[in-house]
Amino acid sequence: MEFYSVLSSRRSIRSFKDQGVPDSVIRTVISAATVAPSAHNSQPARFVLLRSALRVELIKAMSARFEKDLRSDGLSETRIRERVKRSESVLLGAPVVLLVCQTMKDMQIYRDTARRRAEQIMAVQSTAAAVQNLLLSAHAEGLGACWMCAPLFCQNLVKKRLALPEDYEPQAFIVLGYPAENPSAPRRKPLGDIMQVL
Hints:
The protein is an alpha+beta fold and 198 residues long. Helix content is 48%, strand content 13%.
């Protein structure tokens, strides 16, 4: 696909065909993520392909935690069930689920709080850039994908259930598959609302 066509036609896809994704395509889109820019060329993004029964166990455990959080927010039981079911259906129905993590392992170490915080933000930005590359590559390969940030709300649960390395910080799920929907483009803010000239 022509570059600007890929940019403008990509959509968040939450419904997939019952069709597997070849390993070679999964490797292609993860490889695309690795060429994204990163602070200090630290390349903090890490990708965990969830294929085993652990995937279902993790999603069920996260759903229980999500229910608890929504209940404490005061939502009705009906609304809680709707939201949990919607999230589960995407995560359990996707042919491929990638867990995106970041590591501070190769980032700079500073003594002061302000620079440590800045370094953490740079790792987040670098990981997000890698995810954007992955999403665009997936679209160019004919896949649908959706970026879901649920792991941010229960990082310790995710790390423990998957026995992740200590330095891995769960950031997001990316669900992948061949799209079974063709959503219309969401409204985008005009440049006048988001750009200033000084």
